[in-house]
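REQUEST ID: PR-0412
SUBMITTED BY: lab tech R.K.
PRIORITY: routine
TASK: structure prediction, single protein chain
INPUT:
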Amino acid sequence: MKRKVLIIYTGGTIGMEKDYETNSLRAFDFNHIFNKIPEMNLLECEVSVHQFSEPLDSSDVGPEEWKEIAQLIEENYHLFDGFLILHGTDTMAYTASALSFMLKNLRKPVILTGSQLPIGDLRTDAKENLLTSLYYASLYQNDEAVVQEVALYFEYKLLRGNRCLKYSAENFDAFISPNYPILGESGVHLKVEETMLYRTPHQEDFSVDLHLNDSILLWRIFPGINLESLPQIPKIKVLILQVFGSGTIFSNKKTEEVLQKIRNNGTEIVVISQCVSGGISIGKYNNSNIFKKIGAISGHDITAESALAKAMHLIDNPNYSGDFAENFKKNLRGEISEIEE
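STATUS: complete
OUTPUT:
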């Protein structure tokens, strides 16, 4: 039985080709992808293509585009066995994170991929990324999808979408998952780490929750920062503070006063680490206890991309019982590790 996969082409380098008259890159009609990669005809899956009316640079992909992708998956969920989203690399981890929260009780693969070089380049990474992503998007065992989550495939590795980040603008191996093992690896054999795969604990049917709220700000703390400017920003629902190491910040009365003033204004404060690997451990050092005093929320080992997407999804979302802090602390889609503080 041939599995059916829908490719959703949003834009990005993977869909570019060189215009030799101008020597610049331009998007090509992705419906002609079989002409670019004839090897696709050898795959044991049926491929259909939906492309955005105007291919977008990934820097132009945000909440409205996330909703468009989620709606496309919702409309086609029962028509296809898997979904492959082709996307520019710069914001791919944000999109993957957002979709992981918007797609509830997902039981089919949703894979994102892209490339560092255009598909027509001699040394392109686009062909391998695309072909192997299609394998993962159509991989079934005993009539059940092997991957049942939003994942990102790049340079021979399958990663959890809400656990990864782009760390290189030049290497083919551009994405890492610093706090969670890889889900699979492509070599001579296509490997899957089955114990690492996410499975929804709920029995409910698949559904899409398009709720996103942009009343949010990410602020990176640095030595010498003037914290007095923080309360002067327009009132927001959630402030994500990216602090030092495992959760430290300047130890003085003024810092506590400023952060408490923000909390008193009704803003939730989420604390995440500036470190790529590891996470927040409030109480490990004395300079982290301030966050316990003001009632800040620990982001544990969540990535900045995932923290932003999760917060946007949870702010004033009527589809969740409990308050924002209670829900943010939960491991909703495998985005955080179970860490005891």
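NOTES: The domain at 3-208 is CATH 3.40.50.1170 (Rossmann fold).
REVIEWED BY: pending
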